Amino acid sequence: MRDLPPGRPEPTDESVSRTWYRVTSAQRPARTRTPSRILVPALAATLVAGLVVGGAVLFRPGGEPLGFGAPPSADKSSDPNLTPAPPETVAALNALAAAAAAGPPAARVAPGRYIFARHDGWAAGYEMSAGNGVQRRGGSGAAPGQAAVPSNGTLERQIREIWFDPQGMVAVSITDGKREMSADPAAGRAAFKDRGPSLFQPTPEWLATLPTDPDQLRAELREQIGEGGAWSTDHALWSTLQEVYFSADLVMTPELRAALLRSFTGLRGITSSEITVDGRRLVAVRHTERGGGNEILFDPATGSAVGRRSMSLDGSVTVSVPPGAPKLEPGVTYQATWTQKVVAGVGVR
Questions:
Q1: pLDDT of 283-299, one tens digit each?
Q2: Facing residues of 273 across strands?
Q3: What are phi and psi of 250, to 5 degrees?
Q4: Of 14, 80, 136, 137, whose CB neighbour count within 10 A is largest?
Q5: What are the pLDDT digits (tens) for 51-93?
Q6: What DSSP line would sit under 45-61, residue for residue?
Q7: How far apart are CA 174 and CA 189, in angstroms?
């Protein structure tokens, strides 16, 4: 995989690992049931270049490029998290499912219209040591043969506005609220044309075909992800669902929202807690693996996904809070909430 050109954003270790997993999955024989689960390398390269939305990428313009010659997490050898969901998490998920079943109907996206998602939050930027005494600003990817070690991180405000084509949830435009940030819809549409709808590039119609039996749905989602790669299947699934919810929650039916939440009770490594973000009570559902946690934040009143968080749980990362930034829980490196609506065109808010 080539070096990123100057001025392109740099992905974090986990986002590159997840994308690398998608790229290398194309080298395994495709399963006849779900051939669409594999992303073509062109789209995966686009994701590495910074079009993975949400907290996995800082979209830092002007950063010095770092190369990626191997999956950054290949040297991690920790076992996958196989712990069943505890009873309190099962109860929390079932309560969310009950709220989702009575929640808002799926939004209809007429031809020619787009899904507009705006997320507002905070992300930690780091000075990276490349192993030769050189400090580089950006995410936690490292050039081949170099060990990238994060020093103290500093919280920075992060606003992203993204217009999605609902056919494949292709990002047509990405801004920071003021300026365009180099979306590449041609690559996403080419991948969608080649592979069709899947968990990686869903459509409202495809989502409507998913089973609503929780056990069948969980099996289908795991089948979409496949096995192997640097992370466990359930961790890779959870990371993918963070992206799916960010672009497509509003086009899910109440039945699907409820079935998804009930299906999560059978995932390994899942826990939950109640948190407060900007005075709003939310339920954080977390998947933990290798000293890190990824959370999807749910509104307990509707069962809808409204945000996400990422955190380091092993004490290896510290985050400084500048004046005016919120004081997040220890270890939290990213936190944001989002809103979604159907709009008439790109640029319409």
A1: 999 999 999 999 999 99
A2: 284
A3: -70, -15
A4: 14
A5: 333 333 333 333 222 222 223 334 344 678 999 999 999 999 9
A6: HHIIIII--STTB---T
A7: 16
